Predict the 3D structure of the following.
Amino acid sequence: MKNEKVAIIGAGPAGMRAAMTLVEHGLRPTVIDESSMSGGQIYRRPPRDLDAFRPRQMLYGFEARKAGALHIGFDGLGDTIDYRPNTTIWSVENGRLSVVANDAVETLAWDRLVLAPGAMDRIVPVRNWTVPGVYTLGAAQIALKAQASSIGNKVVFFGTGPLLYLVAYQYAKAGLDVAAVLDTSLFPSVPKAASLLSGGLTFAKGLYHVAWLKAHGVRTVHGIRPEEITLTQTGTAGGLTFRHPDGSTETIKASAIAFGYGLKAETQIADLLDLEFFFDSTNRQWLPVQDRYGRSSCQSVYLAGDGAWIRGADMAELSGTRAALVLLADIGVHGLLPRIDALSAKIRTADRFRRAIETSFPFPAHLAAQLEGEVTLCRCEGVTVGAFRDAIAQTGESEINRLKAFTRVGTGRCQGRVCGASAMEIAASSGKTCIQDAGRLRGQIPVKPVPLSTLAGETR
Amino acid sequence: MKHYRVVIIGGGLAGCSAALHVSRRGAKVALLERGRCGAQASGVNFGGVRQQGRHLAEMPLARRSRSIWGGLRELVGSDCEFVASGHLKLACSVKEMAELEAYRATAKDYGLDLELVGPKAIRDRYPYLGEAILGGSICHEDGQANPRLVAPAFARAARRCGADIFENAPVINAWHDGRRFVVDVGRECLAADKLINTAGAWGSRVASWFGDHVDEDVMAPNMCVTEPLPFFMKPALGVCGGSIYLRQTLHGSVVFGSGLGIADRDRLRARPLPAVIEEGARKAIQLVPRLKNALLVRTWTGIEGRMADGLPVVGRSLNVEGLFHAFGFTGHGFQLGPAVGAVLSEYALDGDSTTDVTGLSINRMVHGHVHQHISCPLHHTA
């Protein structure tokens, strides 16, 4: 049992907890981390020389204590795990992982896999979204958290979801100029707010960010529709033109823009492993199927964290621990069931709250469906919304992988991780089919781009 | 039972082209495709439109196909990104140079012009090539196209001409009842005067329903593509021996194929292999050193039929009158596809074809005897 080769993919709260739990029971997992230090996105750490400059309290706010516990706990594992920072997975097969680290490829064997790859920003293109000065909310947060930098002197934040307010709050708190916070959603209605209250503390924190921003004079507008990122004379982002709920338009000047519409699970590895997926209609994305214990459709692959289902950091910790416990039970460790059941009960309760969040900050599918033809849809391959729609009209196709083959949308560097969500909405609306029937965009290896010299075993 | 003049089993490029050519002549035709048209080998190959280096038995077909490629826009409404960029076949030794020279002389008999490029000219004209390259042979009228577009474009054109194209329609069985062919697609049966088998890697299975037993293996050519790079390379590249082939699309991406992935004919699954990709990257850098800093962004493969002698089966059935086969293209059917469809349409409607495909007859495979007349490289996916 102790020889079981377990690989944990991701070292955010889910992966870290999974590692700690396995070590508790005498296993030595391999932990693959794309970052240079564990923590994932939410508990991302600055380089050591910036540590003193922005202490934990400043970086993580309410979550400072949790961040501390995770960082200290994980760092304390030392050699009891095989921790591999700066390591990117480029291929996964049954029993084998191919990784890139330090410009070299390596193959690792696994018997069981804990998938905790986390999530990324979900975006909908808007006119000029590809110019310099436009960032996702997550990227804006990384700049601040890991680099103690701002994306610009004056920033407009737009989109929807809890992250919108959190990042704007963090920027304002750091003394940066937040020009406005513009939300495509309406402020939560009373019945929704009631179910949100079941989230207790998490919801209170969210409200705190909104209230803080208002109290500090940061302009917040709900129910907006982004029209265009305006340009400076040099072609960089100069502001945002948006439409108010009453139909009037307004332009706010800024030197940088951050936007995003909630999160999107990183499912490429689950896809390559041929796991079963289902379409989650609440947050409109395809997710790997899991049983009530977080097992995937494949017996030896376990799911945890936001990569499995967007539930946030606290649930990521719980589901990471649970994935490890279920794995241990599956390889014959006795007496874990009470703990597993207790965790599962907590996770189920939190799901209710999470669904309320998703319905309060809905993904604006209509924005994707109504995009103008000249807007770039796939930036990797330079395909416009219009060219994509033309292909739908000419071929009569609405299945996303068929359209990918015809148009190159989703064939480039990101393989549709960025544009895929919107491409599927356009395929469904222009192809006159429902989003489920537009299908799930499939990926290929490499999971992320790799230089040929690295694959060839040469120096660059 | 709905009756057709011709029923075609298999919606790859050859089948879709056959459907178009039959329907253009006003004959009632149905094409049955298990999945989507062009989803297997026809859609996921390298995209080379190459005559140079072909086995002479394929040359009449290749020549005819090239003339169809040149008129694609008129025929199917799209050029499918076909460009006559040239195909440059490279030699690394004096012996290989001699092979290219000998081939040039033979190709001339078929009207195919090849230009030999010596050691100095190859540096001057193609400065991006690696040091090991000694010279080459260029076929200016060869080129490349986007394979993902071609078979579906033929299928749509055929549909516009009145063909019935049935996708997601797997054929369960087919037979001849003494008067006509009957094709069972589960919920119904179709009847046909003539039957065309263009079922690709599953072609030998269809042939066996009629007593035409041949061995057909499968292969999954391993394909890679880089991010778009500034345009620097016009011709598609091949090498003697066929271990790597590489081209740059007008879009900028460099596509290359090398080695084989895994194909599972029964589960309809194929995937590239990491070790094969790594070896392909080494070969690509040797051939074009500037690629070493390019990012590999995607890989793919598909299921292709492979015959022991490296040549496809094209022509009449051994046992059943009115049945015609074209399968087992062994990684180089893409360029041939349009003409294969045209030839099959002539067989089905006229009983014979003006294009000589005798060297590709199923006769050569029977009695367990395979004539060893292979010269074109097995892995040279067109």
Summary: The first helix of chain A runs from residue 13 to 24. Chain A has a mean pLDDT of 93. The first strand of chain A starts at residue 6 and ends at 9.
